[in-house]
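B., you asked whether I could sanity-check this one before it goes into the benchmark set. Here's the sequence:
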Amino acid sequence: MRANRQQLKSLTENGQFDQAQVQAIANQQGAIAAQIIVEKERAKWEIFQILTVEQRAQAKQFKEQIKEGFKGKFNKSDGGDF
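And here's what the prediction gave me:
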C-alpha cells in the first residue's frame, strides 16, 4: 500500500494526470483493502470458534461496552470540540 501511495504521489507531482494509471493503482489499493478485511474477519471468526460459551458472552458484553464508550466520547451534545 505504501508503494502505491508513492506511485500516486509521483504521478501527480509532475503536473500531469494519467487517469488510467491512477485508476489501476486505485484498483490495486481496493483489492488490498478487501483482502485485509477478509483476513481480519477470518481471524476474528477463528478466535470466536475456540471461545467457551461464557467467553463468547463476555466478548459480546465487552464489545457493547466499547461501543457505548465511543458513543459518549463523540457525542456533540456533551459540549466537546468534535
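One thing to flag: Helices lie at 2-13, 19-50, 53-73. Otherwise nothing jumped out at me.
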